[in-house]
Specification:
The protein is mainly beta. It has one domain. A hairpin with a 4-residue loop joins strand 5 and strand 6. The protein is 0% helix and 51% strand.
């Protein structure tokens, strides 16, 4: 993922081994909003559209600053949705 993402920017996520991992993403928004079990409503989210030419689906993913991915849903292909329900902190 780019360090300073901009809407419309595209990037590769995986490209190895050739022909087996070709994941790509595009930044859709820097102001996304969603509600998940962990933390309730999140705003100011990075929203991406992610796909691979090897798989027949497109996913939208929502990332919260300082937390990471909070939600993911398949918008083309299968009908799956994932939402963050908790965070575990380890003591080290």
């Amino acid at each position: 993922m780019p360090g300073d993402p901009k809407p419309g920017q595209a990037y590769r996520q995986e490209y190895y081994p050739p022909g087996q991992a070709l994941d790509e993403a595009r930044v859709l928004s820097l102001n996304g909003t969603t509600t998940v079990p962990y933390g309730g409503k999140h705003t100011g989210l990075l929203v991406t559209s992610e796909r691979s030419p090897l798989e027949p689906q497109t996913e939208q993913k929502y990332y919260a600053p300082g937390l990471g991915e909070v939600m993911e849903k398949v918008v083309k292909g299968h009908h799956e949705e994932f939402k963050l329900v908790g965070v575990t902190h380890s003591q080290g």
